[in-house]
Amino acid sequence: MLRINLVLLAVLVVCALSLVTSRHQARKLFVDLEREQAQTRAYEIEYGQLQIEQSTWAVPARVEKIAREQLRMQLPSADRIEVIEGGGR
Amino acid sequence: MRAGASAPLKLPPLRASLVFGGMLVLFIALIGRSLYLQRIDNDFLQEQGSSRYSRAIEVPAHRGRIMDRYGEPLAISTPVKAIWAWPDKVEATPGQIRALAEALEMPQGSLSQKLAGGADFVYLKRPVPPEVADRIAALRIAGVHDETEYWRYYPSGEVMSQVLGFTGDHDIGQEGMELAQQSWLGGKPGTRRVIINRRGDVVEDVASIRAPQEGRDLALALDSRLQYLAFRELKAAVEANKAKAGAMVVLDVKTGELLALANWPAYNPNSRTRAARERMRNRALTDTFEPGSTLKPFTIAAALESGRVTPNSVIDTAPGTLTIGGATIHDAHREGVLTVEQVIQKSSNVGAAKIALSLPPSAIWQTLSDAGFGAPPRTGFPGEVGGRLRPAKSWRPIEQATIAYGHGISVNLVQLARAYTIFATDGELKPVSLLKLDGPVAGHPAIAPETAREVRHMLEMVVAPGGTAPRAQVAGYRVAGKTGTAHKLEGRSYTDKYIASFVGFAPASNPRLIVAVMIDEPAAGQYYGGSVAAPVFSVVMGTALRLLSVPTDAAVTNVVLPPDGADIREET
Question: Which residues from B are below 8 Å from A when comparing CB atoms?
């Protein structure tokens, strides 16, 4: 009788300890998850800011100014444009 | 001693029952207290307990982006910081104030002024980049705080200002599409309950009280390249003609999508100092005007539909005036005998009035109504108007005659552009859309395909030499369109101020785009639609067709301009 009780006690102690460790593990993983999620949000915000930056640099007015003034490009006249069917969107 | 030990100890009965009773009372009190704590006062205790380890925290949700038809971002929200203060609680050393002013990039004087202004609460600066806010927080000045808020950026600036509108506090739409699509774009922050440890870090998720609802992205029908093109040309034309304002619409014939919708004057939506209401109005949708001769094709279509005239029927417009009741209609140039085709080509008011008077009013009303006049174009844009088309029963003969050439009726520019879909297609009125669509949409039949083809041919004659708008021609493409030069109505009388307009479509063999231009009060000498609005149309239409790689349907040498000065023959 006593022997069984001792075995059961040992099992109980092991179970209790494993509960504690898994609980601790879960919390640690959860903290990691939270950190990763915060990181995701930060990246999303950065992506939005980069998009703003990109489209600010790419506004047609600026592109046109640089093309005309720095690169000395010009719009071809109508007689130098050939439209090919089936291309483009 | 022995006897005392062996004999049971006897307490006096009174004392024994007193002790027993006292203990019983204490026990009952203890049970009562524990019952009270467990059952009755339980909520309060639970709350107190959980408040030590659990928190309800807000989960932020951002506002959706607005994009053009190719996914170019037009409006994006990003979190920024606002720095605010309770002036009477601010305790700072002069050194701290100096550091704060430096971080905020504002003169120390104006900072002190803000803090001494006597207000309970004052925003020192918004928006501030998060790094700067962190630097300010590190100064640890009592009474100075920051908060996170979303700020909306519009990379295209004034080019699309009236279409997009803007958002106000808490990123809620105030104008334009931002307002119209608020429920689609707007995010709703959620809350969740979490367990925190003693350092305040979240260690466990308990429950989501309200899931955050992220704002959804919105794809507009606009093509940012065409929008920029339309805006640039419109602005140049309004300035060159010293006009008060202008608007331009580019419409896809197949789908009814609004590819461009430009207005001038405009404002910069990124600036928080609010522009005048005048600059914010999307004239093309919220303002009506009397269209003038751009309405004539609809009168002619009604006449062709009734079977009373054919394109080659002859109308005598001599001597260039027509008196009905007490009023007289004038032509800008005397023309004499004209065919119905030439009435459109030369834009004769007398001719159009005579044709209209030969029809029952209800026939004209029906055609105008089928073309979408008198009812809002239902784009969903806030403040959109429908213009005025009075019921045919109330028309007096003079009104019937003036409506024939676009006076006594009011329209907005989008409505006018859309109405031309009945000529650009085979008689179908297409619904207009500010949002991107997946493919062609079915229209609503308004006139017979045969009538549409006949009017289309007449509209092509308008831009040919001898018509009112040779300057609307486009190299490489056949163009069809109609000029308008309307006297402005102020109060009850017409003034010598004009609205010059041009509405047209191309390529005429298989129309793809409709472009409508309206210039309000040109004051630099020229005021005819053919000389003010037609050249803008030509540039925008030609460039847009080439940008969209639309196959040409004419030789590039097709543009034939009459000698300078001799070309513009116009109307009211």
Answer: 60, 62, 65, 72-73, 76-79, 153, 155-157, 159, 201-205, 224-225, 228-229, 232, 474-476, 542-543, 546, 548-552, 556-557
